[in-house]
Automatic annotation (TrEMBL):
Metabolic or biological pathway, per its Swiss-Prot or TrEMBL entry: Purine metabolism; IMP biosynthesis via de novo pathway; 5-amino-1-(5-phospho-D-ribosyl)imidazole from N(2)-formyl-N(1)-(5-phospho-D-ribosyl)glycinamide: step 2/2
Catalyzed reaction equations: 2-formamido-N(1)-(5-O-phospho-beta-D-ribosyl)acetamidine + ATP = 5-amino-1-(5-phospho-beta-D-ribosyl)imidazole + ADP + phosphate + H(+)
Annotated GO CC locations: cytosol
Entry similarity comment: Belongs to the AIR synthase family.
Lineage: superkingdom: Bacteria
Pfam families: AIRS (PF00586), AIRS_C (PF02769)
Keywords for this protein: ATP-binding, Cytoplasm, Ligase, Nucleotide-binding, Purine biosynthesis
Domain PurM-like C-terminal as annotated: residue spans: 179-344
EC number of this enzyme: 6.3.3.1
GO terms for MF: ATP binding; phosphoribosylamine-glycine ligase activity; phosphoribosylformylglycinamidine cyclo-ligase activity
Localization (cell): Cytoplasm
Domain PurM-like N-terminal: residue ranges: 51-166
The protein, known as: Phosphoribosylformylglycinamidine cyclo-ligase
Length: 357
């Protein structure tokens, strides 16, 4: 029989066999990101989670969040390093969940590629699975999509969604915050996964730097600094809620410290944060200096060294700091909550950073 010359999925650029191999390679990593409540394994049409575990709650509230990692994927692609970007994805999702006090239960992921390279896809999922282990949640499933013609052969993007649970009477938020509460800043691991469009514009387009450039003030190459994974705070925050009184958390992502903290500051109150209580990591000053970025622009784009904020009553400060120190998490009192004057912003940053940045 003559070989068909008609169109096919493979001729259109989609390699089903490569996709199957990617699934086979990633299975071992997904198995490591399990919880006892997970039913079945990878390969079904839906991930299953035994909801009978929620019976121990009197009134369980389910929390849901979804996110991606933005243009940081371009750094991973250019460096050929694919097993850390998943940590960023998990951090961006679960750290949004824990803000309301929710324990992350499970995640699903979506990996979109121009061409399936099985080992590359497996490395991405490996990072996601490792991030789930660090967050204490399960990876119950996901999707790998091949989009030839839409994405280049080496292009990819990742997104994820997570679900958590919190007891209704343990819900955290603005309604709990009171005058006199302390604002505890929790250190970031670096840029995390926000502001990379600005960072790439400054460092690559304006300054003309390469990822391989050794940067003495960073103590490593530029690429290594930019690919530093997002810190995953979920278990640290949950440890705080079990041992100290916490009124609210704020996950510092796009919009910076002031805008994200403002999301949990109630009307009539103001969080006043003192910049002099910390020194931002060198990468923040580097971006500001090379790009001649004004401080307000820098602060509303990057986290400036603070990845999460806890608002606690004064009597819980010592316990909260001790818990975080025991978990090797850098944290410090950065400000307090006061009555807000008419026309004042919900969050005010005062003073200069400790290093004068």
């Amino acid at each position: 029989m003559a070989e068909s010359t008609g169109a096919s999925y493979a001729a259109a650029g989609v390699d089903i066999e490569a996709g199957d191999r990617a699934v086979t390679l990633m299975k071992e990593w997904v198995r490591k990101a399990r919880r006892p409540e997970v039913v079945g394994g990878l390969g079904g049409f839906a991930g299953l989670f035994d909801a009978s575990a929620l019976r121990r709650y009197e009134r369980p509230l389910l929390a849901s969040a979804t996110d991606g990692v933005g243009t940081k994927v371009d750094i991973a692609r250019r460096m050929g390093v694919y097993d850390t970007i998943g940590h960023d994805l998990v951090g961006m999702v679960v750290d949004d969940l824990v803000v309301c006090g929710a324990e992350p239960l499970f995640m699903t992921d979506y990996v979109c590629v121009g061409k399936v390279h099985p080992e590359r896809v497996a490395a991405i999922v490996k990072g996601i699975a490792e991030g789930c282990v660090l967050a204490g949640c399960a990876l119950v499933g996901g999707e790998t999509a091949e989009h030839p013609g839409l994405l280049g052969p080496d292009d990819f993007d990742v997104a994820g969604a997570g679900t958590g649970v919190v007891e209704a009477d343990a819900l955290l938020g603005a309604e709990l915050i009171r005058t006199g509460d302390a604002v505890i800043a929790i250190g970031s691991s670096g840029l995390h996964s926000n502001g990379y469009s600005l960072v790439r514009h400054v460092l690559f387009e304006r300054a003309g730097w390469s990822l391989e450039r050794e940067v003495p003030e960073l103590g490593r190459t530029l690429g290594e600094e930019l690919l530093e994974p997002t810190r995953i705070y979920s278990l640290d925050c949950l440890a705080l809620t079990r041992t100290a009184q916490v009124h609210a958390f704020a996950h510092v992502t796009g919009g910076g410290l002031a805008n994200n903290l403002a999301r949990v500051v109630p009307d009539g109150l103001q969080a006043v944060v003192d910049r002099s209580t910390w020194t931002p990591a060198p990468v923040f000053g580097l971006v500001g200096r090379l790009g001649e970025v004004a401080r307000p622009e820098l602060e509303k784009t990057l986290n400036m060294g603070v990845g999460m904020v806890a608002v606690v009553p004064q009597e819980s400060v010592d316990v909260a700091l001790a818990v975080l120190a025991d978990r090797d998490v850098e944290a410090w009192v950065a400000g307090e909550v006061r009555a807000r004057e008419s026309g004042a912003p919900a969050v005010e940053l005062l003073g200069e950073y400790a290093d004068g940045a």
